[in-house]
Model the fold of this input.
Amino acid sequence: MNVVVCLITAVAAYLLGSIPTGYLVGMAKGIDVRKVGSGNIGATNAFRILGKGPGIFVLLVDGLKGYVAVALVPRLILRFFDSNSGWGDQVQWLKIIAAISVVLGHNYTCWLKFKGGKGIATSAGVLAALVPVALVISLSTWIIVCLLTRYVSAASIAASLILPPATYVAGYGWLLAAVTGAMCVLAVYKHKGNIVRLMNGTENRLGQKKAPPSTGTAS
Done:
């Protein structure tokens, strides 16, 4: 594989994923979401702190980042290279590179000192482009667990854990199962604080009332 093409794909997908949607939407409303609620820039904290409308916007844009990175970025990059070079057979590898890079970009954005979200919405966008059937299984798990427990974090962890076996059972093969396995490990790691709070019984439930956020600008 052409190393230059792989690097360009990785960098482009990372930069797309690194767009801190929740932070930007919060600052547009005069709120630094890193300083209120869970301190996370993802959709869940945006819902709690900024409200339903902004939360939905953050959720959709973060998901779109993942989808575009996998479905479009590799093909756009290959347009700049010889169409007869045999890259048509290797698009799948570029999609995998883009998938990992865009999630890393969201979780460790270079614009906020490499502190970002937890990658659930962006991962969902990636999965929609890469393994849509497995995404349906994972999303169904998320909905069931969330309805039963009203813990968004528990639902996200459960959905992440079911993803690798769902990918394999759905017929996408061991390679994509390994990729979704890596995404699962990263997602669970990013929820380590939530896991501690779940064990201590201090995790916030969906719909739980919170104190009004304080406003302020980023440092």
The two ends are 43 Å apart (CA to CA). The CA atoms of residues 38 and 45 lie 6 Å apart. The chain has eleven helices and no strands. The chain has two domains: 1-110+122-129, 131-210.
